[in-house]
Amino acid sequence: MIIIQLNKRQLKIIDIVKANEPITSENIAASLNVTRATLRSDLAILTMTGILDARPKVGYFYSGINEINLVGNKVKDKKVEDIMSMPILVKKDTSTYDVIVTMFLSDVGSIVIIDDEENLCGVVSRKDLLKATVGGADINKIPIGMIMTRTPNVVTLNRDDSVLLAAKKIIEHEIDSVPVIEYDGKDKTRTKVVGRLSKTNITKLFLEIMDN
Question: Ranges for the CBS domain (predicted)?
Fold first, then answer.
């Protein structure tokens, strides 16, 4: 069985939960003198691997580092390319209106924006589109490139990254999905989008593992 490598803060969290279960995330954060946001990724990893159990309106319980963590091991072995889905891509000169239509027809929370050479140049989310419409702008005339989040500020993943890393990025950056990229040769500025890793992909993986 693969041994899960926990960091010092995660080990402290386990000790706090053992001694005080059930305990809320607010109380765990207070015990460590940090914010809840700081603990978000640690608590997510500990619950995903089965070490902690989280119950709404109750708090966290200690489940134990034992065979239950085989679920965590199965997740840890998975790579992004194993569960990623096809990305929804639009060109940066596409109108904001057309992107809104594409987003809702595709039923996704974010869309990847590419340039004329099909390299990643940005990402647009539902929140970005909402801001554009509420602001009274003519969404038929404004290209999506004007309101997108531009590279290098876009969070990305590679094919061989772990699913746990993907989950951590989604939680830390509070985003719906992450584009999966590969570099065009040695030029790090030329990035092709080859996939999309979302919360839904990760949830489906957990359901598949638990069903089996």
Answer: 83-139, 148-212
* Start-to-end CA span in the chain (Å): 18
Q: Closest by alpha carbon to 50, among 69, 24, 73, 66?
A: 69
| Cα 196 off chain centre by | 10
The predicted structure's pLDDT at residue 211: 67
Q: Environment class of residue 172 by beta-carbon count within 10 Å: exposed (0-12), middle (13-18) or buried (19+)?
A: middle
137 is written with which tokens?
A: 């702008």
CA angle 199, 204, 206 (to 5 degrees): 100
User: Domain locations in the chain?
Assistant: 8-77, 80-207
Looking at the predicted structure, is the pLDDT value of residue 1 above 80? no
Whether residue 89 has pLDDT greater than 70: yes
Q: Which fold has domain 8-77?
A: Arc Repressor Mutant, subunit A (1.10.10)
C-alpha triplet 94, 174, 140: angle, nearest 5°: 20
Q: Check if the beta carbon of residue 23 is closer than 8 Å to that of residue 12.
A: no
Class of domain 80-207: alpha beta
